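REQUEST
  id: r-88c1
  op: predict_structure
  target: Colicin immunity protein / pyocin immunity protein
  payload:
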Amino acid sequence: MSKKLSKEELIELVNKICNPKLSDEEVSEYIDILEDNVPHPAPSYLIFWNDEDLSPKEVVKISLAYKEEK
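RESPONSE
  id: r-88c1
  status: 200
  body:
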């Protein structure tokens, strides 16, 4: 099992995902890594489809703070 990324590494990863010069394959790979490192079930939604324009730091904060309702 690979080690979890730090908060700073996750922010950098979200910055990479937001780079318009990346190929779809690269973005998909980075999203998979992000999903493996946060409890939020769909962190890509926060990046691409959220009504608010969240910064990478805000995306990571929300993704890490997510708790599934029971």
